[in-house]
Amino acid sequence: MAKATEDAADVVGMWVTADVRRRGPLMNADDTTSAAVLERLQRRSADPRRRILFTGATIVTMDPALGVLDRGDLLVEGDTIAAVGPALSADDAVVVESAGTIVAPGFIDTHRHAWEAQLRRIMPDVDDLAGYVMATLAGYARAYRPEDMYIGTKLAALTAIDSGITCMLDFSHNSRSAEHSDAAIQALLDTGIRGVHASMGPHFGDWDRQWPSDLRRLKSQYFSSDDQLLTLRVAALATDEIAGPALAYGPDLARVAQDLGIGVSVDAVFGTSSSEAVLRWAEEGILNPGVTLIHATGLTTEAWKTMAATGTTVALAPTSDAQIGLETAIPAVDEALSAGIRPGLSIDVEVALASDMFTQMRALHAIQRMRRQRLLRHRPAALPDHHSRRTGLRNPSGRPHQRTGEHDRFTHPRQEGRPPDHPGGSPQQHAAQRPCRHCGPGLRRPQHQRRPRQRRTPQVERPRPRRRPARFAQRGAGLARARPERHHQVTLPVVSA
Which ranges carry the Amidohydrolase-related domain (predicted)? Predict the structure, then answer.
């Protein structure tokens, strides 16, 4: 963990969970974490050399040399994690007994529209992207005042901290005036979260058109230092399909970001049009490691290769892609890993989605497992290389398993060199069946080659109608019962007297 904080400007970014035994808050572990300890922490909060010692916690260090400490201590000096290990001592430190808790590095939310937080869960059953856009960006966003921006952004930041997210990128795409931007930034400052303010103008409605020229004022007023918790980025859209060319990323916005020395976050990157935009940005020289593409769903292979070659970073939104239905609705984690890109995760919009990172991780894990199982069963030849390396699903010859015929099964290792029309099958499918002339006596004939056993359907004896003598057919109106074995009805004409 200490090594990780060195890469993050030596600023504390850890998260302490609730008591895993009592299901209670951290400060109820025992008497040493009472109200008196809280008072000491608050009293010394302004001291830049304040020392806090967390003792007896399960610590996820993220350091290969230390691993996970079942019972360890963590010392914080000022805003830096000074030491991690067992039985640390600090004479003048405020001791926080943390037995039964988990201390871990904080999560990073790479993309959240924080101003929408007070609209949380207004549309949990959102139909699609158009439904979200019309309800929020074309609806509520028009009525937002600067104080509304402050409330929403602060609520989102506090929610992030409460769920273990210690760094959040606020994709603030409702900057209708300079006052709206100021309010959003001030909310992040007041919560104390490490964050990124990514500023963009609104999609619809009236606004002051101060963006992107106002970014220079924001940079000088709030982000003059490179050593601070908050940083600034340009926010943009991938194409002009939703809000027009003014908000779409291109050479003009790339020049603004370059002049200010800040990065760019591009939202709504999905589909064929975004794939074409990625290739165009690369040709224009505006795709680089300072650019983050959000969602990246349904992109072409050429686009992924270009992103990898230029060092472009990617932010996925697992529950957003699936629930709002963005392009393929499947997070592109396999595509990113296959291209050599390690993506980040994000929350996106709280109007329809959960606010914590655990939900994103569980959703992504389930979706990736689903895709892997489908590849294993239906398309083994298309299994990505990173899956093959992790699972070892390769033949003894080193070649990936291939699909054979229309049966969609793996090629069995014993089948190499067999005729191409051999149906394959797994050892379980071969077992307890007749010998196969291709596989030899060790394996058995696949189930689909066996001759199906014919089963006789039991015949149900039905009573046969008794045949009447032919003489009854000659009796006057007895035509209707002349052939009673016929089951259809005969309608006789009505004859008047």
Answer: 102-381
